[in-house]
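Dear Dr. L.,

I hope this message finds you well. Following up on our conversation about the binding site, I have prepared a predicted three-dimensional model of the protein together with NAP. For your records, I am including the exact sequence and ligand specification that went into the calculation, followed by the structure tokens. Please feel free to forward this to your student if that is useful.
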Amino acid sequence: MRILLLGSHGMLGNEFLDILSERSGFDVTEFDRDELDVRRREDVLNTIHRYTPDVVINATGYTDVDGAETNVEEAYALNAYAPKYIAEGSRDENAILVHFSTDFVFDGEKEAGYTEEDTPENPINTYGASKRRGEEYVMETNPYYYLVRISWLFGKHGKNFVYGIRQKALSGEEQLRVVTDQMGKPTYTKDLVKEVLHMLQEKAEYGIYHLTNGTPEETGISKYDLAQTTVNMLGSPVTVVPATSDMFPTKAPRPHYSALRNTRREPLRGYEQAVHEYTIEEEW
Ligand SMILES: NC(=O)c1ccc[n+]([C@@H]2O[C@H](COP(=O)([O-])OP(=O)(O)OC[C@H]3O[C@@H](n4cnc5c(N)ncnc54)[C@H](OP(=O)(O)O)[C@@H]3O)[C@@H](O)[C@H]2O)c1
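The resulting structure of the complex is given below.
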């Protein structure tokens, strides 16, 4: 299978590179920002046409959620128009497009969480709105797509929430204040990449997928729960103190309820196991 991987130095892209390099049967060509600027339509199309891939994996994105509130154009360039160009190029080659989106395309008001059947009407912030536009472009341009929504992504190649908690827990701080009023589901890059590769190998049906790690309740866990789990695993004496979102104002609002429910495939393994592997078993 010929794979063209875009955004190969990001948190998710790098995980794809790691796992693909250990697998046989995949012929991978990778690009990062320095080699291909995905905002440039002609360059995107020429690259895809030159490599004639079977699969294009788009792991690029403008991921600064608060920054997107002021850098609106840049957020749309990366999260909406670039996916459109990538969808055009992959469609011309009859290639499958794997594209990643976010829980922030939803409004965050649905306590039960969101399934793949839910249509995002009112994204919670500008980042979410730009990602939603990208979703629409992908779906209307290339029929061979896996649009994979993920949330609270963590993995060894980037800064993320669990990373931050780990650093603080090990730095000797006595207390950590973490919000109890943001419910969602974490996604471990390793589990996500393996599942996407399964989907490609099994020739899963095209469409939208929510891929997140399992939580005891379908409605997800709070950020507080995730922090407490991480601290417990590290055996850190730090106290995790419950807080609310209004104590930490951010430029971009965050959703109260944004659990992505996986109804089309089994959820990825339980989040505790994933957090354990990431915080304890990975090399740091
Ligand atoms: N992180 C999360 O919690 C989360 C949650 C939900 C969905 N997602 C989605 O998952 C995907 C991957 O996220 P991530 O956390 O791995 O992001 P990331 O670490 O910020 O990586 C983004 C990648 O995009 C590349 N990039 C930026 N501008 C580019 C340009 N003009 N041309 C080509 N490449 C460019 C970056 O290159 P440089 O390394 O050179 O900057 C980097 O490799 C994104 O679509 C994101 O929206 C992430």
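In brief: Residues 72-92 form the longest helix (21 residues).

With kind regards,
A. P.
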